[in-house]
């Protein structure tokens, strides 16, 4: 998965593991192996996602830890990777190249319904970022083609539609917060559709959730 909007920033390292890399949620050893195999034996911080909207601004002091009750991370510190696990929920990647601040959020339907991207931008602004240069990439997640919801959930989004376009809603929320359309990019990948590439909570009817790990970091030599 690549974002064109991030292309001109080689210092920015980001991505998401694939099914072939293994399940990442409950396996710290596997995560360590994954990051070192990428040539990124870099400290990382994991947000222990709970479908809330708490965003933590972190630094080197948090390295190696998993932050509980947290669905998004931001940092200005280089060589420190922000990570979250996902399997249908969207990883949303933030980079403000002027302020050199990164962010990563876990956006499932609950997070989207609570406008989690707004919370991320709030915290970015507190750290001097989140201005007009802000770039946002939306990673793989469950798309309208497969995200069928019950009436109660549709109601939360103010619709009677059976299928919900979460990525479209996220993009609308970002636009409402002043992020330029040209600065938002959607990977377009559906975790449910791409059964060879990604785990999907809904497709695989997972009990113990198998998940990918999304990451972003600013690498300095
Ligand atoms: Zn699909």
Topology, element by element:
Layout: E1 12-16, H1 28-37, E2 44-48, E3 55-57, E4 66-68, E5 72-75, E6 81-86, E7 90-96, E8 101-107, H2 109-113, H3 116-126, E9 135-138, H4 151-156, H5 166-176, E10 184-186, E11 212-218
Parallel strand pairs: 2-4, 2-6, 3-5, 9-10
Antiparallel strand pairs: 1-11, 5-8, 6-11, 7-8, 7-9
Globally, the shape reads globular
Total domain modules: 1
Contiguous runs where pLDDT drops below 50 for at least 5 residues: none
Radius of gyration in whole Å, from Cα?
Answer: 16 Å
Helical segment tally? 5
CATH-assigned fold name: CNF1/YfiH-like putative cysteine hydrolases
Pfam family, one: Cu-oxidase_4
Family: Belongs to the purine nucleoside phosphorylase YfiH/LACC1 family.
Protein name: Purine nucleoside phosphorylase
GO molecular function: copper ion binding; hydrolase activity; S-methyl-5-thioadenosine phosphorylase activity
Concise structural overview:
With 221 residues, the protein is of the alpha/beta class.
Question: What do you see in this structure?
Answer:
This protein has 221 residues and is α/β, with parallel strands linked by helices. The protein has a single domain (4-218), classed as 4-Layer Sandwich (CNF1/YfiH-like putative cysteine hydrolases). The chain has five helices and eleven strands. The chain has a six-stranded mixed β-sheet with strand order 3-5-8-7-9-10. A hairpin with a 4-residue loop joins strand 7 (90-96) and strand 8. Residues 143, 145-146, 190, 192-193 line the site of zinc ion. The site of zinc ion has 6 residues, from loops.
């Amino acid at each position: 998965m690549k974002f064109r909007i991030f292309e001109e920033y080689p210092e920015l390292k980001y991505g998401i593991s694939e099914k072939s890399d293994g399940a990442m949620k409950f396996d710290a050893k596997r995560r360590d192996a994954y990051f070192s195999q990428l040539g990124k034996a870099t400290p990382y911080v994991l947000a222990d996602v709970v479908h809330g909207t708490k965003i933590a601004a972190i630094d080197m002091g948090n390295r190696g830890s998993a932050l509980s009750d947290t669905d998004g991370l931001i940092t200005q510190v280089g060589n420190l990777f922000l990570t979250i696990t996902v399997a249908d929920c969207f990883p949303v990647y933030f980079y403000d190249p002027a302020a050199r601040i990164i962010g990563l959020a876990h956006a499932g339907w609950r997070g989207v319904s609570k406008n989690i991207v707004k919370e991320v931008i709030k915290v970015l602004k507190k750290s001097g970022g989140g201005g007009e240069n802000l770039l946002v990439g939306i990673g793989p997640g469950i798309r309208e083609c497969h995200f069928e919801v019950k009436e109660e959930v549709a109601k939360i989004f103010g619709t009677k539609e059976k299928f919900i376009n979460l990525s479209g809603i996220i993009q609308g929320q970002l636009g409402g917060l002043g992020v330029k359309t040209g600065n938002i990019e959607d990977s377009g990948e559906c975790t449910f559709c791409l059964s060879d590439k990604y785990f999907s909570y809904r497709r695989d009817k997972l009990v113990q959730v198998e998940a990918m790990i999304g990451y972003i970091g600013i690498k300095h030599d």
